[in-house]
Amino acid sequence: MNQKNSVSAPVKAVEALILEQFRTEPFHNLHLLYGKELKASIPGGTCSDKTLSFLNAATRAGFNASLHSAYIGGREIHRLARVLIDDETFFADVGNGWPSIKLYPADREISYRSYGMGFRTEIHGTRILVFNERQGEESLQLEIDINEKLESQIQADIAARFNSGVIYPFSNSLRFSLVVGDRFLFLRGDRLEIYSDEEFDVVEGIESAHVPEIIQRYFGHEIL
């Protein structure tokens, strides 16, 4: 793969901001499941919530970042950030449920590992294909059209996301993920998956009544 030998200081700074977001703002769909019962103070959310939060932080830090969108399963339903650094275009997928902690360049393919899983890109014309590998199995995660998007249209899509008729793949199943210490934790339905560079562990058979306790114990957040 054509990768640059060194990473610039601005790229490192943006990637440090991405990692901080993955440590402090969980990916979750609690508002879809709990509604008004959910604590107002719970941070994070789905891809739109996390991306908008990242854009605020990136702008405050002086970076040139804007809204972008991507395709999952052929539908343009995923939000991420477009970042311009030294006339190069990158994409920050901070709204991913999985720990995509590196920037994706628009002009070259990359691969890296984080928390025991692999990420890599392929570029086909104006499309960046992002693959994720877990436990030896790789799948296509999303596709990014490199062409610039109208932020006003993406903002409108975000505003209408819960009444647009689009059904999220996880609408009826719990999702909650966060980087905690040197591990990445993902609660999916009744299954808590724990990833690290050294090992993979899983806690299965979690009953819905115990979800608030599990989130408080493993993630450090009170949700109700």
The overall strand count is 13
Rg value: 17 Å
* Mean pLDDT over the full residue set: 91
Main sheet specs? 5 strands, antiparallel
**Shape, principal axes of CA atoms:** globular
Across the major sheet, the strand order is 1-10-11-12-13
Helix fraction by DSSP (H/I, runs of at least 4)? 10-25%
Low-confidence residue ranges: none
Beta-strand content: 35-45%
Order of helices and strands: HEHHEEEEEEEEHEEEEH
Category by helix and strand content = alpha+beta
Helix count?
5
Overall description:
The chain is an alpha+beta fold and 224 residues long. The chain contains five helices and 13 strands. Strand 11 (183-188) and strand 12 (191-195) form a beta hairpin. Helix 1 (9-24) packs across helix 3 (47-60). The chain starts with 8 loop residues before the first helix and ends in a 5-residue tail after the last helix.
In short:
This protein is of the alpha+beta class and 224 residues long.
Short descriptors:
globular, five-stranded antiparallel beta sheet, 224 residues, alpha+beta, four-stranded antiparallel beta sheet, 13 strands, 5 helices
Task: Please write out the topology.
Elements: H1 9-24, E1 27-28, H2 30-34, H3 47-60, E2 64-72, E3 75-85, E4 88-92, E5 104-105, E6 111-114, E7 117-124, E8 127-134, E9 137-145, H4 151-159, E10 175-180, E11 183-188, E12 191-195, E13 200-203, H5 211-219
Antiparallel strand pairs: 1-10, 2-3, 3-4, 4-5, 6-7, 7-8, 8-9, 10-11, 11-12, 12-13
